[in-house]
Amino acid sequence: MSPSRKKQKAHHLNLLDPTETSLSGSDSISAAHAREFVNEEMAAAANLEDVPSMELMTELLRRMKCSSKPDKRIILVGPPGCGKGTQSPLIKDEFCLCHLATGDMLRAAVAAKTPLGIKAKEAMDKGELVSDDLVVGIIDEAMKKTSCQKGFILDGFPRTVVQAQKLDEMLAKQGTKIDKVLNFAIDDAILEERITGRWIHPSSGRSYHTKFAPPKTPGLDDVTGEPLIQRKDDTAAVLKSRLDAFHVQTKPVIDYYTKKGIVANLHAEKPPKEVTVEVQKALS
């Protein structure tokens, strides 16, 4: 290895050595934290030398910032179109949490052929529902990821009181619990206006809204002039069915967590920035 290459390698390694590096005077990086990051980067890159120093430092600084954040385990509850998808990334970044969506986790476990994923696939192949115990097990598995070290945002689960109880039991074994349930409360009529007014240009994905973001020519894409379509799920009839099912399923879950004193009811009909302020207050 050339002297310059050796020097470059040493530079990379010094960034990860707490005996050589300190940030803001006393803010030194722990050896365990550094080793963990090195292991992850080495798994992602064939050679640590290929990871730019600035990227390593940026990631370490991010983790230093995250280390001062309180651990949080949050559940998001809300009907389709309530704004969870807008607020979730903001919460994730602000509190250094991982986002756990049960559908995504199930697909990932099946694709990775984990023991739980194999069992889940067997159930799905038979046309059966994946059992609550399996889903909770997959959540437990996902929580072990480094990105979930400070906690998680759970979206799409629990949907029943039994699922909520099983989740609580699993967390209790780890000495943790759900800290806050954010209920994105919104009137069905407002949701209907939001969702049934959505139209898309299928080939580009450009979206419009008859009231909030209308196309220049009704029913036509601004760029191509091609017809817009409405998703099947965005019709009033389908939405009503989905909302009825949501309310029947979710009310007992909200009541369950309300008795524990951890539900924050958000005014999800407000503009996104105002909802963000409510979220921050609820989690402070």
How is this structure best described in words?
By secondary structure, this protein is α/β, with parallel strands linked by helices. It has three domains: about 5-55, no CATH class; about 70-95 and about 150-284, P-loop containing nucleotide triphosphate hydrolases (Rossmann fold, 3-Layer(aba) Sandwich), CATH 3.40.50; about 100-140, no CATH class. About 50% of the residues lie in helices and about 15% in strands. It has eleven helices and nine strands. The protein has a five-stranded parallel β-sheet with strand order 4-5-3-6-9, sandwiched between helices. α5 packs across α6 (about 115-125), α6 (about 115-125) runs antiparallel to α7 (about 130-140) and α7 (about 130-140) crosses α8 (about 160-175). The longest helix has 23 residues, at about 235-260. Residues about 1-40 have low confidence and may be disordered. Its EC number is 2.7.4.3. Belongs to the adenylate kinase family. It comes from Oryza punctata. InterPro entries: Adenyl_kin_sub, Adenylat/UMP-CMP_kin, Adenylat_kinase_CS, Adenylate_kinase_lid-dom, P-loop_NTPase. It catalyses: AMP + ATP = 2 ADP.
